[in-house]
Amino acid sequence: MAKYEQLAQELKTLIAQGVWQAGDKLPSLRQTVADSGLSLMTVLNAYQLLESQGVITAQAKSGYLVAPQPETFRYPDRQRQIYLSDKVDINEFVFSVLQASKQAGIVPFGSGFPDPSLFPQQALARSLVKVTRHMSPSFAADNLPPGNAGLRKAISQRYAKLGMSISPDEIIITSGAMEALNLSLATLTQAGDWVVIESPTFYGAMQAIERLKLKAIAVATDPQLGIDLEALAEVLKTYPVKACWLMSQHQNPLGCSLSDTKKQALYQLLNEHKVSLIEDDVYQELYVDSSAPRPVKAFDTEGRVLHCGSFSKSLIAGYRVGWVAAGLHAPQLQRLQVMSTLSTSAPMQLAIADFIQSAQYERHLKQLRKKLADRKLAMYQLLRAHLPESVGVNFAQGGYFLWLALPAHMDATQIYSQGIERGISIAPGNLFSNQVEFRHFMRLNASYECSPEIVSAVVVLAELIRNYSR
Amino acid sequence: MAKYEQLAQELKTLIAQGVWQAGDKLPSLRQTVADSGLSLMTVLNAYQLLESQGVITAQAKSGYLVAPQPETFRYPDRQRQIYLSDKVDINEFVFSVLQASKQAGIVPFGSGFPDPSLFPQQALARSLVKVTRHMSPSFAADNLPPGNAGLRKAISQRYAKLGMSISPDEIIITSGAMEALNLSLATLTQAGDWVVIESPTFYGAMQAIERLKLKAIAVATDPQLGIDLEALAEVLKTYPVKACWLMSQHQNPLGCSLSDTKKQALYQLLNEHKVSLIEDDVYQELYVDSSAPRPVKAFDTEGRVLHCGSFSKSLIAGYRVGWVAAGLHAPQLQRLQVMSTLSTSAPMQLAIADFIQSAQYERHLKQLRKKLADRKLAMYQLLRAHLPESVGVNFAQGGYFLWLALPAHMDATQIYSQGIERGISIAPGNLFSNQVEFRHFMRLNASYECSPEIVSAVVVLAELIRNYSR
To answer: Which residue has the higher pLDDT, A141 or A175?
Structure first.
């Protein structure tokens, strides 16, 4: 074991013993060099190792803090929670939650989007102004499917930064990731086909399945480890599955990410059964700063993964620009797009192409990742300070969601309704499943700064949970 | 009979006798006042009556010209051309025609869009710049379905100008009319349902029907009189039809418009059978200047018409903003949109709302209508001058399409392939039906100025037709 690994191990033990607790500041690098007699490089390596393991997190100006440790979540059925449903029916509920979240002045803990003040709205407006001034008269035709050539090339270059070789030819620009995901599913399936989703899952997957009259099998996903591959293997053996739709990174609503090993195993498993994967990766850029993870698509040797991305969570919401790297399904998917929305708005494609090819994009992403990590940790600490101990808070690296487990007898829908009356939205667990198993869970958006207003909202939330009436 | 009606009748007789022929200039108002001894008002009324009847057209700076008269079209089955098809399969052909039309430098007679130089691209860019500078941080959420409130209000006000009372609440902003039409069809039907379309029809209708696994009945549509209501009545009696999708104005590909009486009769017929109408009205604004027609939606007393509009043909292509006034189906359609593309790009909605609320919009539309009318007439004359007499050219008021009937033994697909090789695209009749009945027809885009390049292209087209080999 190298010296830096030894140091990391020692620090880990001290943290496990409670010498430093979640949110506590570790001794500075300089201090540790002085205390240990090790070189600065060794100490830095040790800290970075711990950071990559999610044990500590780097905070701007305050050095390294101890990261929240995974809390134990007792799910109703841990082993291999599979359920079947001929009819998924989630729409009315999703719609009413979305509508409620639109109310002006509501504290948006239920929102799926990051705090819009984190987006470089003005800089993007400048890109938009610039490109609209130089649009050729044929701009509409030039940007028909598969979409703007410059934007597809820029996306391809970003894949290259991850060591992935994705040709611009397999990239199709869409009206946000929602269209990318829907087109992917429509490309792979016919009415009546079986599709694997996660449990819990992004409600958009259930809605798409309902709309296309497909049948869904949900495979249990652990809030720290991600999808249960054994359960998935069993499902693939049992059912004639046509597609699998999941998130391998910063899963919505849990926040968890698969390890590289697990991503590769997942790909191999699906490939053995010749099942294509719809990889919803809209939070891809929101990793913790030091390590850029690679999606399952990175292990795709057969063109079987349809990797769906978006700029709505990492750059700007409301422009509605996403994409899919559709592998061997690209030609068919492109035809389907021509039939459904024809194309994505051309000025929006051009503006985003302009922005992401500038140095501003990387600078923005760095800042965004840092801020989201800081705010999520602060929100975690705030929740822990105010919520009863009986409430579990799942903290995963990256993204901006926290997943809360209330005591099992509680129904988060009730908290949701009471919250709306008090001016606070949350996303109740029922949104993420068509069964009641996540009734006592909720997803909170942790992308907002801990302002007095946010603190008050957390206090109210804690009060609602304490006063919960059966 | 009033004096002006008498004068109109006399002029009509002279035109029928060939004293003045299509494209000839009529005597000026002043000249006719001098010749007839009638008042200027009487003469003006007579000319305007003839204009409203499509007998003459007003031309900028050149007074009134005789309009082309309807040519006789012999369709393979004139009476009530109904066919059934369990499987509509048009996609590959449509896609290859669309892709071919994207080639740089091609003469775009096959294009579905008007000459982009007719669009106020720079003025819209200024609107876009203005709105992006003033977007609130919450602009993404504010413009979620049903869409920007200001834009929906502005659209509602335009309906009011036609004497139609359409609440902003039933208007949903979409990513172009294509999304509006697709969502409408998905709202009204389940897989296996029967849908009525026209014959010939916009290929997008057939694609949507195929995608949703519906069954289609096509009802004959006359190039001058529009859909055959007797045939439609019979179909409605015979089949459990769930929806009817048609164009009541400037039909694509024919160009024909229904009279008000026929629009009302159509509505009543559908209403008797409780069948909802998807009214594709994307060329609504492209009428001949003196008369703003009202869609079938104007006769809708039950909220049964889903009126689909777009800015892509009248204002700017490539922004991808359309709408549907969905009547009683609005709530369900809105839910469906949230599930499929989430929403239309917010800056695009805001820019168009800004522009159409300014005086520029009406000014632009007036110019556009005039230019399109002039260019279509010029194109008609050009075609008549070069094409063999055996080719029929259907001239309908409004829009920018001409519908050509080649001799019955010809296949326009062959002309299309040869045309592409010579740098000219056309839209062959097979695009607009899944039967071969329109094999010897073609649609030409007449929105381009008769430049030397366009003249040469017409000469080549005439040559291809003359040299047609069986």
So the answer is: A175
